[in-house]
Design brief:
Helix content is about 70%, strand content about 0%. The chain has 11 helices and 2 strands, in the order H-H-H-H-H-H-H-H-H-H-E-E-H. A two-stranded antiparallel sheet has the order 1-2. The protein starts with a helix and ends with a helix.
């Protein structure tokens, strides 16, 4: 799982840098994080370097296809989502060849004695788990938001960017901020063993939004040419995709 953790971390950092860096630098940042993480974790065997080098392909493909898919519908959405699935599947399928993580990162964690590292030596499975959790936390901030948007546009619940048309998202603001916060809560509570509390977070979102949706449904009005059915579809699909990303991340940590 160390390969997967480094790849997800590279994708997550890359997506965080999208709004602040020139386009061609973004995949370079992802590759630097991937290779830098491998060196720090002591993954320098031939198999590590070959497989991680091959994983650059789906990483760059994810960035390229998801960038193209932002402004229009088309195959780019499926290509982007396919690349995001292909990377982890490739790394999981070949993970038996991965070296045991350690290296400078394990030595630093043992020296720093951070609270979440426990009392035993930091290396092997312990370091692998720490890297995976850190990577999933980063990916649930920006990458998950992009996944939700791609799914919404691909099923028609959200208009392509720059289409000039009113968006259901315009009437349910705060999703880009609330989504990551919601996923962090679900992931954090799940890691703490509080799955019931994580379920309450999911239910609370529906309770908060339901009165607003119900009020608009009763008067049968449209808002900026966006019908209540479109707003409801946007809310439901976006919420379920966001929850699935968070729950999928939690499942990978088990």
């Amino acid at each position: 799982m160390t390969w997967l953790a480094l790849w997800v971390l590279g994708v997550g950092v890359m997506d965080l840098c999208r709004p602040t860096r020139p386009g061609w630098l973004v995949p370079v940042v992802g590759a630097v994080v991937l290779y830098g993480g491998a060196l720090l974790a002591g993954l320098t065997a031939a198999a590590d370097l070959v497989v991680l080098s091959a994983s650059i392909i789906p990483l760059v493909l994810w960035w390229t296809a998801s960038e193209r898919a932002q402004g229009r519908r088309g195959r780019a959405h499926l290509l982007a989502l396919g690349a995001l699935l292909a990377g982890p599947l490739l790394l999981l399928g070949l993970s038996g060849w991965a070296s045991t993580p350690g290296g400078p990162l394990a030595r630093w964690l043992a020296w720093a004695e951070l609270p979440f590292t426990g009392d035993g030596p930091v290396g092997g499975r312990a370091l692998e788990h720490l890297l995976l959790v850190a990577a999933l936390v980063v990916a649930n901030v920006a990458t998950a938001n992009i996944v939700v948007r791609l799914v919404l546009v691909s099923v028609g619940a959200l208009r392509p960017r720059n289409s000039g048309l009113a968006q259901p998202a315009d009437r349910l603001r705060g999703g880009r901020l609330l989504g990551p916060m919601e996923r962090m809560l679900i992931l954090g509570l799940g890691l703490a063993g509080q799955l019931t509390a994580a379920g309450l977070v999911i239910g609370a979102k529906g309770l908060i939004r339901f009165p607003e949706l119900q009020a608009k449904a009763k008067d049968g009005s449209t808002i900026d040419a966006v019908g209540i059915d479109e707003i409801t579809e946007y809310f439901l699909i976006g919420s379920f995709v966001s929850w699935l990303v968070a729950l999928g991340s939690l499942a990978l940590t088990r």
